[in-house]
């Protein structure tokens, strides 16, 4: 016996990325729908009318069932009370443990067996529902010839619902077919690529889920292969009980192959369209590729200039402003419904029904017919790319604040314009104030300067700082380039000029510095402010030429690294570690300006010690800095609630007068932090104490700031 099933629902694969399925809500429901439709069509045994020769036996079985039901009713009455009665449930005949678990999960009798029933009719109704539900599960797993029987029997003065399953052999897929409708058919290489996307494979177990998934895969693959206006019109499913196979045919209206045409921008008010044009990853006339359209949308989104951005392809004959129907879902309407309707059956011998392939069917005859109507090679229609945008507010004001025991309160205010000259240029003005330092800075960034993913940077800054180590007044101006090499790797270089007026240990020094900082960065973490997985590495080097009372040269080198390891799937427990190594070469300590030496201690360094309090000190106990530094830190981050976490930590290191760290006389601190998690990042409050304090070190230090410590 053979059954032909099909769905008339349509799935679209056009210019937009497939959206979420509308119905049903999950592939599992869709699979059950596919299997249930097969059951309703009577494509498997168990519902056939008995032959006349078997009527006597059938009557005897009916009498036996009636007697069993009578006994079960009596058992339920014996066990009943004002609160009802309980029942037992048994599932027999299934040896495959995985299949049995699936059947039990789908069984209402199993799930609700602890409930008390008030009537025997309710138990019988549940049994009938279970027979249908379990039949659907069996078909979704490829057991299209399965048979189920159910009864209610009496056992120890209570009714027991019993279902006996005879799964039978598991059916396999026949070779899937792609049938192309209309007057166009993709070239052979495209058809081969589409077939590669199918999860329905010949001779594999005939599960329902791959049938549905494959339709969604086709809908997504067609735009990626140059067919943004294609439709996966539906699928035909044929069950052949004679050879125990499931044959699936997907009906596709591919439409013409498209090329990238003109680009139209809708909704722009202050952004220069020429700037957005430069971000396109394709060349005009190239074969349409949905991946390229998606990449363009991501690039536009990352500019930070838009609240909403969409990139869609339009047919060349679509009027401006007219909408086109988008894809129904990831697998289209037919894929989402999972409910093909039976429209035909094979004859009693079980032979499969014949079906004449149309002009586009992916068979030998269909290919020949399709080639007669296919467009000439290279004949593509231009797709108009429409960018629909809602611009964001380009001007923002932000503030921040913090506190540390030795540096006191600090705060900053930033004004930013993210589209200063109309092409995504960013101007940021920041004022910072603390008890020991004040600063004003202006930073300018021009994105995609001369090439994609390369930014022009310029900065101007003024700073005043008065610490135990030194007092400084500086003015700095710089210009540089920063290039994103890959998603993880980036490099940068700049030229900086700095004028400094520094007083240390009662000695005032005025000089100018010309520096050429160069850096390389790798960021494999999952978040900027609150990483829980991955690692970061930054390498910096900066040759400096100084001019003051004399001319001097030195080079400042530094390596920063941090790593993060989640201990559970939800990342409620995370181990975080960091290290810092630095070296100054080319001049002695006294020659190198104090604001270019290495210092350690404080909230961003070794917690438990005061700001810059770790390292060499002068006769009065004030820090003087050194030519090398080594630091390490370890945290265990425990997020015990949605908005709160605890962080025990330990950090150690020191500053040395030599050009390389000596790793001796290590200073260490430990403490406990509280984290309050917000939408923009965690707020941290840390309390730390030195493990091996010096005579002048405080026993407790407090730190408050935004973001993790590293």
Automatic annotation (TrEMBL):
<keyword id="KW-0472">Membrane</keyword>
<dbReference type="GO" id="GO:0019867">
    <property type="term" value="C:outer membrane"/>
</dbReference>
<keyword id="KW-0812">Transmembrane</keyword>
<dbReference type="Pfam" id="PF01103">
    <property type="entry name" value="Omp85"/>
</dbReference>
<feature type="signal peptide">
    <location>
        <begin position="1"/>
        <end position="46"/>
    </location>
</feature>
<feature type="region of interest" description="Disordered">
    <location>
        <begin position="7"/>
        <end position="26"/>
    </location>
</feature>
<protein>
    <submittedName>
        <fullName>Translocation and assembly module TamA</fullName>
    </submittedName>
</protein>
<feature type="compositionally biased region" description="Basic residues">
    <location>
        <begin position="9"/>
        <end position="19"/>
    </location>
</feature>
<feature type="compositionally biased region" description="Low complexity">
    <location>
        <begin position="337"/>
        <end position="378"/>
    </location>
</feature>
<keyword id="KW-1134">Transmembrane beta strand</keyword>
<feature type="region of interest" description="Disordered">
    <location>
        <begin position="311"/>
        <end position="378"/>
    </location>
</feature>
<feature type="compositionally biased region" description="Low complexity">
    <location>
        <begin position="53"/>
        <end position="66"/>
    </location>
</feature>
<dbReference type="InterPro" id="IPR000184">
    <property type="entry name" value="Bac_surfAg_D15"/>
</dbReference>
<dbReference type="InterPro" id="IPR039910">
    <property type="entry name" value="D15-like"/>
</dbReference>
<feature type="region of interest" description="Disordered">
    <location>
        <begin position="47"/>
        <end position="80"/>
    </location>
</feature>
<feature type="domain" description="Bacterial surface antigen (D15)">
    <location>
        <begin position="419"/>
        <end position="710"/>
    </location>
</feature>
<keyword id="KW-0732">Signal</keyword>
């Amino acid at each position: 016996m053979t059954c032909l099933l099909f769905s008339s629902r349509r799935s679209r694969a056009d210019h937009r990325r497939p959206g979420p399925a509308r119905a049903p809500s999950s592939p599992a429901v869709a699979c059950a729908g596919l299997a249930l439709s097969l059951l309703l069509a009577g494509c498997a045994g168990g519902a056939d009318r008995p032959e006349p020769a078997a009527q006597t036996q059938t009557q005897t079985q009916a009498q036996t069932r009636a007697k069993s039901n009578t006994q079960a009713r009596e058992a339920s009455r014996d066990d009943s009370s004002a609160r009802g009665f309980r029942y037992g449930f048994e599932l027999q005949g299934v040896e495959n443990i995985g299949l049995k678990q699936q059947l039990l999960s789908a069984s209402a009798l199993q799930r609700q067996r602890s409930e008390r029933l008030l009537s025997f009719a309710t138990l019988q109704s549940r049994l009938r529902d279970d027979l249908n539900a379990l039949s659907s599960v069996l078909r979704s797993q490829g057991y299209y010839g399965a048979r189920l029987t159910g009864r209610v029997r009496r056992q120890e003065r209570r009714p027991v619902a019993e279902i006996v399953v005879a799964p039978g052999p598991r059916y396999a897929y026949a070779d899937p077919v792609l049938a192309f409708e209309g007057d166009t058919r993709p070239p052979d290489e495209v058809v081969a690529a589409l077939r590669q996307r199918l999860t329905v494979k010949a001779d594999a177990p005939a599960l329902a889920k791959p049938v549905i998934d494959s339709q969604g895969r086709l809908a997504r693959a067609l735009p990626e292969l140059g067919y943004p206006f294609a439709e996966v019109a539906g699928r035909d499913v044929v069950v052949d009980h004679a050879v125990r196979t499931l044959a699936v045919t997907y009906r596709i209206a591919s439409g013409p192959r498209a090329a990238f045409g003109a680009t139209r921008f809708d909704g722009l008010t202050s952004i220069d369209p020429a700037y957005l044009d430069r971000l396109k990853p394709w060349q005009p006339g190239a074969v349409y590729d949905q991946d390229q359209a998606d990449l363009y949308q991501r690039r536009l989104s990352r500019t930070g200039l838009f609240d909403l951005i969409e990139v869609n392809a339009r047919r060349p004959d679509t009027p401006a402003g007219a909408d086109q129907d988008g894809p129904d879902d990831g697998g289209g309407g037919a894929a989402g419904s999972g409910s093909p309707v039976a429209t035909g059956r094979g004859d009693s011998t079980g032979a499969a029904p014949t079906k004449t392939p149309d002009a586009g069917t992916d068979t030998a005859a269909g290919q020949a017919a399709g080639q007669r109507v296919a467009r000439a090679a290279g004949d593509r229609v231009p797709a108009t790319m429409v960018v629909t945008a809602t611009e964001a507010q380009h001007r923002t004001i932000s503030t921040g604040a913090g506190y540390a025991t030795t540096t006191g309160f600090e705060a900053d205010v930033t004004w930013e314009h993210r589209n200063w000259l109309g092409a995504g240029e960013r101007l940021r003005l920041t004022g910072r104030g603390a008890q020991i330092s004040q600063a004003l800075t202006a930073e300018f960034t021009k994105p995609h300067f001369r090439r994609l993913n390369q930014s022009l940077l310029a900065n101007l800054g003024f700073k005043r700082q008065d610490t135990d180590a030194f007092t400084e007044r500086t003015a700095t101006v710089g210009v540089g380039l920063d290039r994103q090499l890959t998603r993880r790797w980036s490099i940068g270089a700049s030229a900086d000029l700095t004028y400094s007026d520094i007083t240390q240990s009662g000695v005032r020094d005025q000089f100018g510095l010309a520096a050429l900082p160069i850096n390389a960065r790798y960021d494999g973490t999952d978040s900027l402010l609150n990483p829980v997985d991955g690692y970061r590495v930054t390498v910096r080097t900066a040759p400096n030429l100084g001019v003051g009372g004399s001319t001097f040269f030195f080079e400042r080198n530094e390596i920063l690294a941090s790593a993060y390891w989640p201990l559970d799937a939800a990342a409620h427990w995370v181990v975080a570690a960091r290290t810092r190594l630095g070296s100054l070469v080319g001049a002695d300590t006294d020659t190198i300006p104090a604001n270019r030496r290495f210092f350690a201690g404080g909230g961003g360094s070794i917690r438990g010690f005061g700001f810059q309090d770790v390292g060499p000190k002068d006769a009065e106990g004030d820090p003087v800095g050194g030519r090398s530094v080594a630091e390490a830190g370890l945290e265990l981050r425990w997020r015990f609630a949605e908005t709160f976490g605890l962080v025990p930590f330990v950090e150690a290191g020191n500053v040395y007068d030599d050009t390389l760290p000596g790793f001796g006389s290590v200073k260490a601190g430990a403490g406990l932090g509280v984290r309050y998690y917000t939408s923009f990042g965690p707020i941290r409050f840390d309390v730390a104490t030195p493990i091996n304090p010096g005579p002048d070190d405080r026993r407790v230090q407090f730190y408050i700031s935004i973001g993790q410590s590293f």
